[in-house]
Amino acid sequence: MEKLLAMLLMLALGLCAFALAEEAEEPDPTLAEGYVTELEGYRSEVRWCKNGEMNIFGRFYYPENFDPSRTYPTVVMSHGLGSKADMVERAKWPEAVTAQGFVAYAFDFCGGGMNSASDGDYMQMSLLTEVSDLNSVVDFVKAQSFVDAESLFLLGQSQGGAVSALTAAKRPDEVKAMVLVYPALCIVDDLHEFVSDINEITGDTFESAMGTLGAIYARDAYDLDLMGEIAGYTGDVMIIHGLNDKTVPYTYSVEALETAYAESTSELVLIGGKKSVHGFEMIYDEGREAALAAGVDFLCAHLR
Questions:
Q1: Which pLDDT does position 280 carry in this prediction?
Q2: What distance in Å separates the CA atoms of residue 138 and residue 76, rounded to the nearest whole number?
Q3: CA 44 to chain centre
Q4: 72: domain CATH number?
Q5: Is the pLDDT of residue 177 over 50?
């Protein structure tokens, strides 16, 4: 009798575990293709795209009274290291641009963060894999019938800013203008500070200022002339940076304006105050309004 009860208990526990596993594997409906979220004054729609075999999760953000038979100026938005597209929305960038009649598309880089909805492994991500992702995203966005390909803009936060700058440099005639928010133009210098010789990295990972990263991250960026590469973009750039940013000192943005973007009519907007830290507009109300206003005014001024 005791053996029978034990068997029944084991069966019950097994069924319970199976049910929990099934529940855990239940797909998140909010990530499904075509899922629409109604927001105040605008709405979002989930649209997946691909980079080769890799699936990339993203959302279009449409202005109020969006008409798919029309074309709209469009902003492709890239998040920072270890983050995801939700952080771009948290900073209110989609809300700000759609209020001015733009369409926006924000996406998760492949392996871009531990909680990325896109395919890919965080330890297989690098600046160059993200440039490849952004190139595929730009192709996908430009192919949409409601996107005005002549008015395509890039906006990137932190590492997404560096990736946007590198991508635009390779297709300068396709990017109308860019907004770079505290772009991580310090990446190569930070790598050299932690790794004196690239041959020191013999395993699959290494420790950096940004935590544990895959060896590919160091190999792809170690010898990169970041300022030289981004100079390939000759259009206008607005850089927005907090004066109290300790992660990416604002002096890198000053250098970019004075060297890489010296020949254009680019601008640097510095945000002051104690809360003007890295990622300030995602964390604090202070400074966000000034950043959004400057970025949106810049985009509107470049409409054809």
A1: 97
A2: 7
A3: 17
A4: 3.40.50.1820
A5: yes
